Every structure is written in C-alpha cells, then in structure tokens.
C-alpha cells in the first residue's frame, strides 16, 4: 500500500536494529500497521519479500517511544517514532490505533517478540500484598474486640 517505516533504535537481544512497519489497507476502508519483524541495522536497506496473503499475528498497542529533542517523528523511511495522525493523512484512510505483530516472518527478518505492555505476573505480588493486609486487619479487629 505505502512505503515501509523503519522504526529505529529497536534492540533485540542487545543488537541494534529496526522494526519494519508496513501500512496495510483493510476492506472496510481503514488501514493498519503491520510489524513485519526486526532487521539488523546493517541490512536495513535490503529489499524484503512481499507480505504473505494470509497474515497471522497479535494485535498490540502502537509502540510508545520516549524520544529526545531532535528525534525524527515521521510516516515513512527511517524514523524514531511513528506519527499516526500524519500517517493517516498521508494514506487518506482512518488508521487503526495499534499494530499487528506477525508471529512468523521471512528471512532476513526476525520475529519481534509480542509482549503485553505489562507483566501479568506482577499482579500476583499485589494480590498477595492485599491478602496479607486484609488478614492483618481481621486479626487486629479480633484482638481489639477481645480487649473490650
């Protein structure tokens, strides 16, 4: 549909590279960004094979990047951050507010690990903390009731 975006400063296993994002037109008249995968910096200019006819991936939020002054926010080519408003204008379509991260890619691309923006295991610690606080409050209430 349109030119690829190379999302710079994307580290994978400690190696610098780019994430290759491609806008894709949908049948309903909108567009979505497809994350084709990660490419090592040295190969960022190599031609890539076409997208497969059937895409299989996970829906993720658009990458939120911390950018410093002077960072390039754009809609095509090598950018530090994606500008979704300008990209939708350039495409002439409504741009969906996320990205489809492909589960499998073709060489020379490597699959980008699709992870949620938070670690769900972190909530077990919160649950345990509130459980212990509740038990302390119950024990304190029982002790206070016995004294009176």
Commentary on this structure:
The protein folds into 2 domains: 5-116, no CATH class; 118-148. It is built from 2 helices and 8 strands, in the order βββββββαβα. The chain has helices at residues 84-91, 122-147; strands spanning 5-7, 17-25, 31-40, 57-61, 73-74, 77-79, 81-82, 95-102. It is elongated. The termini are far apart.
Overall shape: it is elongated
Classify the secondary structure makeup into a structural class. alpha/beta
Helices, by number, come to: 2
Helical fraction: 10-25%
> Distance N terminus to C terminus?
76 Å
| Order of neighbouring strands in the sheet with most strands | 4-8-3-2-1-6
**What's the average pLDDT?**
87
- Which stretches are low in confidence, meaning pLDDT under 50 for 5 or more residues running? none
H and E string: EEEEEEEHEH
Number of DSSP E strands? 8
Tell me the count of domains. Answer: 2
Largest sheet: 6 strands, mixed
The value of Rg in angstroms is: 23 Å
Kindly estimate the percentage of residues that lie in beta strands according to DSSP. Answer: 25-35%
GO cellular component, one term: plasma membrane
Membrane topology: Multi-pass membrane protein
Pfam family, one: SURF1
Family: Belongs to the SURF1 family.
Task: Note the topology.
Elements: E1 5-7, E2 17-25, E3 31-40, E4 57-61, E5 73-74, E6 77-79, E7 81-82, H1 84-91, E8 95-102, H2 122-147
Parallel strand pairs: 1-6, 3-8, 5-7
Antiparallel strand pairs: 1-2, 2-3, 4-8
Membrane topology: Multi-pass membrane protein
Protein name: SURF1-like protein
Keywords: Cell membrane, Membrane, Transmembrane, Transmembrane helix
């Amino acid at each position: 549909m349109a030119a690829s975006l190379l999302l710079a400063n994307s580290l994978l296993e400690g190696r610098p590279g780019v994430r290759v994002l491609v806008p894709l037109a949908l049948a309903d008249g909108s567009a979505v960004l497809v994350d084709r995968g990660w490419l090592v910096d040295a190969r960022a200019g190599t031609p890539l094979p076409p997208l497969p006819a059937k895409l299989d991936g996970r829906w993720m939020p658009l990458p939120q990047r911390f950018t410093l002054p002077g960072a390039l926010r754009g809609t095509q080519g090598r950018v530090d951050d994606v500008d979704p408003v300008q990209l939708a204008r350039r495409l002439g379509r409504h741009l969906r507010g996320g990205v489809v991260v492909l589960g499998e890619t073709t060489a020379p691309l490597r699959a980008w690990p699709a992870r949620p923006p938070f670690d769900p295991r972190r909530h077990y610690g919160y649950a345990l903390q509130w459980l212990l606080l509740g038990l302390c409050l119950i024990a304190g209430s029982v002790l206070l009731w016995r004294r009176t």
